[in-house]
Amino acid sequence: MRLLFALPGFHRYERGAEVALLSVASELARTGDDVTVIGSGDAGPDDPYRFLHAGSIRRENFEKFPFIPPFRSETVYEEATFAAALARKYRPADFDAVLTCSYPFTNMVLRRPMAGGPKPLNIFVTQNGEWPAVSNDAEYRFFSCDGLVCTNPDYYENNKDRWNCTTIPNGISLDRFQPGPGNREKFGFPQDRKIVLMASALIATKRVMDGMRAVAPLGDTHFVVAGDGPLRDEVKALAAEILPGRFTQLTVSPNEMPELYQSADVFLHMSLLESFGNVFPEAMACGLPIVGHDTPRLRWIVGNEEFLTDTEDSVQIGQALTDALAAADNPARQVSSRVADFSWTRIAEQYRGFIGGLPKDRPSD
């Protein structure tokens, strides 16, 4: 198949959605599909796919802009600048299917009318949530797709009667994410304390500061946040107040993530609900006990053996962290057998099967 993946952050940012979709694109390209990627970064020397540059303005430049519909966040401002460049590079007739997780502007550009010939199948992936697919309010009422990839079973149940749907989780590279000795010295972590790790953007929904408050009473622990975002100043100020000498904030490349997990004792994630957190199978594959908010969706990912709790209850989250730290010291602890379900090879096969099975004759938008 001739496939196009389009997202503003491709080859420029290394966030969850970018890492996930590029991993799918790479695996499909390596196993026989003709894959093109359009993003605002630059082509790499070892890309298994064809890369096209379409520029955008970084979202950080929009953090102080007014947020009004449809420009509800700095992310949408960034996407709008990318969509203008994408429209100049995108040739619908060159592709059998196009994929994105960005709405509204990228999705709309990829669905633009074309004269003559069949339009490519438009695949939307719920990496950043299902709102475009389920909501009929404001700009969401203009959403459309030929296939919806739901990254969790909740999204599938919500959308199966309206769209051509499938459930496909994100994946991990099993040859990279596995237990190991780590390298605390490299990251500047203390050798004599337990390390509680969050890998998270510094935005309100990730509840990083709630995580800091949960870890603070555990006096023999050091709290690490790998990520950046608009709340960086607030996070730094709170750390100075409640975690003096016990806090590290850093950013690392995807290549360093396995070593980062291996350098920690427990993985903590405080979001109340995620479409799919790549960090969960990554941490699980590296052997870290996981503390997170107890939802059916998260149990679908990590199973019933991790330390899921009501993270809005200070007593329960404190106990879960204590139990997880104790489990980290257990030499008999094994990596969950569930991690095999998240190999990128399996995930790419599911994408190929879903796209190949979609009806080619369909009503136009």
TrEMBL record:
Keyword Nucleotide-binding: no
Transferase in keyword set: yes
Gene3D superfamilies xref list: Glycogen Phosphorylase B
Pfam family, one: Glycos_transf_1
CDD domains: GT4_PimA-like
Domain named Glycosyltransferase subfamily 4-like N-terminal: residues: 16-176
GO molecular function terms listed in the Swiss-Prot or TrEMBL record: glycosyltransferase activity
UniProt lineage: Bacteria, Pseudomonadati, Pseudomonadota, Alphaproteobacteria, Sphingomonadales
Parts forming coiled coils: none
Keywords: Glycosyltransferase, Transferase
Protein name, UniProt field: Glycosyltransferase involved in cell wall bisynthesis
